[in-house]
Amino acid sequence: MRRPILLAAVTASLVLAACGGSSSSGGSGSTGGSGSTGGSGSTPAATTAAATTAAAASGDQFGGDVCSALTKAEVEAATFPQGAATFDSTDTQKDATTGKAVVCQYLVVFGDDPSIVGVAASLMDDTEYGTRAEASLIAAPEALTGIGSEAFLVLPAPSLFEVWVAGAHGKFKLLAQSKESAIALAKIAAPRN
To answer: I want to staple 103 with a disulfide (CB 3.0 to 4.6 A). Which of 7, 44, 93, 110 is the partner?
Structure first.
């Protein structure tokens, strides 16, 4: 009984953290596997406005497809506290104004458990990127080197790690359940156009 509650709490935390700065629109665009858990909920007007600005400001980030930030193999190679993961599908959160996907949640399965968000990539604008100190609730953001032109490790909640990246193609954040995976995946995604 304890494991399903823990998985539900981690899933909720990942979804909430991944949805920061975007509006939800349900599942879309599976890149492999089957079954997608649709996004739900709504965001305050301020974060919806930030998502709109992020979508406009990010234009060509990841070739216009936030889900191309990472591949199935890269997500499966990440380190998860629950053990080895199998990629299931992707789910996007779309900007309410433009309809453009600004968040991609990479859903994974552990054994026979239902899909949960294993990794998430979110487009950001300059304003949201500047809020990293406020978003890092556990400790001050840690500056990282070798990722884009500037990067910070942000800790939005216990056991959640985000790398906020500024690079030639725009700004984004990448969320994972381990620090090592968040950093490694951000390094992979940063040079992609």
So the answer is: 93
Identify whether the C-beta of residue 36 lies closer than 8 Å to the C-beta of residue 90: yes
Contact call for residues 120 and 83 (beta carbons, < 8 A):
no
Tens-place pLDDT, residues 75-123: 999 999 999 999 999 999 999 998 899 999 999 999 988 899 999 999 9
Q: How far is CA 165 from CA 39, 51, 153, in A?
A: 24, 16, 9
pLDDT at 43: 32
pTM, full prediction? 0.71
Hunting for tokens 């199998």 — which residue is that? 86
* Nearest of 137, 139, 130, 140 to residue 173 by alpha carbon: 130
Helix and strand element counts for the chain (H, E): 6, 7
| DSSP-based three-state secondary structure for 43 | coil
- Provide the phi-psi class of 29: left if phi over 0, else alpha when psi is between -120 and 50, else beta: left
Contact 119, 176 (CB under 8 A): yes
Residue 59 has what pLDDT? Answer: 53
Exposed/middle/buried for residue 174 (C-beta within 10 Å: 0-12, 13-18, 19+):
buried
